[in-house]
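name: query_chain
kind: protein
chains: 1
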Amino acid sequence: MVLEDLAKTVENHAPLKKTEIIPYNFFTTEQPVKGARAYLLRHVLHDWPFHACRQILLNTIPALVKGKSRILIAEVILPDMNTSAFGSLMDIQMMKYGGSGRKERMWREIFESVGLEVAKIWPAVGTDSIFELVLQ
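structure:
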C-alpha cells in the first residue's frame, strides 16, 4: 500500500507497517504509482470546485491500466430531495472553500468530463458512498 500526501505532511510521518509513504501533489504532478489495481481518494474532491476536481483526476488517469485499474472515490452523495441536516451543513461549509456537497448527477458530470465511467456505486454505510471509476 502507498500513502500519498503533500511533502510537508508526510516528511515527519511515523512509518507504517506494509505502507510506503511518499510525497505527492495531485494538482501539479502526474500520479507516480503506475498500474495499481486501485487508487482511493477519500474526502478529497468535495473540497474543490469542478475544475480542480478535473485536474486531480486528469493527473491520476495516466497511471491507470485499462481493464485493471480503478479509481475509488469515497464521498457523500447528496440526495436530489430531502437532504439531511448533515448534508446541507456540509454543503454550506464547503462553499467557503469553493467545494460543495454534490448530488450523483453532479459527481457523474465531473467523472465523465475526464473520460471516466462509473462502473459501480457502493451505497453509503454511514455517510460515504464509493464510486468505482474505470476508463471509458
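note: Strands lie at 2-5, 20-23, 38-42, 70-75, 77-78, 102-103, 116-122, 129-135.
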